Amino acid sequence: MFFWLCSSSLPSLCFSSYGRDQVIGESTGKVALLTCASMVAFAGNSLLARMAMDTTSIDAASFTAIRIVSGALTLLAIMLFRRQRPGRLRDGWLPAVLLFTYAAAFSFAYRNMETGAGALVLFAAVQLLMISYGIVRGERTSWIGLLMACAGLVVFLAPGASTPPLGAATVMALAGFAWGAFSLSGRPGESPLAGTALSFLLAIPLALALMLLQYRSLSLDQAGVVYALVSGVLTSGIGYVIWYWVRVRLAAISAGAVQLSVPVISAVLGVLVLGEQVSARAAVSALFVLGGIGVVLLTARRR
């Protein structure tokens, strides 16, 4: 589904901008489909990082650098093909720092955390930031829906989540706050491709500097490099363009709540790719997560 959505929708995303009239009149079906695609991409990143950190010898700094560089080159190639230019340099440094912080912290945290525990800490931090931002800006939504989704997520992750080390949990929380802030940094007048490409390009020197700082522990593995490349090109580079486009068409609370679906999708991918087992209890709790998200999306509104 993700490949089909990318091929059918990416051209229009590359040319589009975030004018107010366009946002208001956008097809609900298109927004919903692309929201699903971006959530699958996020889940894919979790799966790829888990596979790289757990089954290969690649180090976290190298995985982060390959992911960022390959994502940047992919977006640059698309921009050259479309004859577009990156966003303004002066507006791109903060999103680039946030993007790098998320990617690096995400990789390092997954060295010492199980997938379920990592997802719980990551998306709890994302929700805390984005929902708080939405409430401060006067957005309103169903608290019942939020509690329902959060409760379902906790129950869903509890059976397979062990207590993580405090240091790893802190790093993953940092990744969540950075990702939430990056998601909120999109501006209604900016092309999703230009904004995302600029962030990736400006994050390259930060990723290379991290490799220099970690040079004593660098380790490359063929399978790990492949996982990092897929993460950078597909689920990060192209996936984030889709999310950048979707984000400004959703209320901040909705954009935060919909990401609660990512751990559920990650579990499904784990079953299909890694042969992991999902209990009946987990399946029921997943229905609560998705049901709560539906309530939030239907009731969220701007001031």
List the helices and strands and how they pair.
Elements (H helix, E strand, L loop, with lengths): L1 H14 L4 H6 L2 H28 L4 H23 L10 H17 L5 H22 L6 H15 L8 H19 L7 H22 L8 H26 L4 H7 L3 H13 L5 H20 L4
Helix pairs in contact: 1-3, 1-10, 3-10, 3-12, 4-5, 4-9, 4-10, 5-8, 5-9, 6-8, 6-11, 7-13, 9-10, 11-13
Helices, by number, come to: 13
Mean pLDDT level = 79
Q: Please estimate the helix content.
A: over 70%
Number of domains: 1
Number of strands: 0
Biggest pleated sheet = none
Structural class by secondary-structure content: mainly alpha
- Share in β-strands: under 5%
Q: What is the H/E order?
A: HHHHHHHHHHHHH
Shape: globular
Detail the poorly predicted runs. Answer: 14-25
Query: Measured on Cα atoms, how large is the radius of gyration?
Result: 18 Å
Q: What distance lies between the first and last C-alpha atoms, to the nearest angstrom?
A: 35 Å
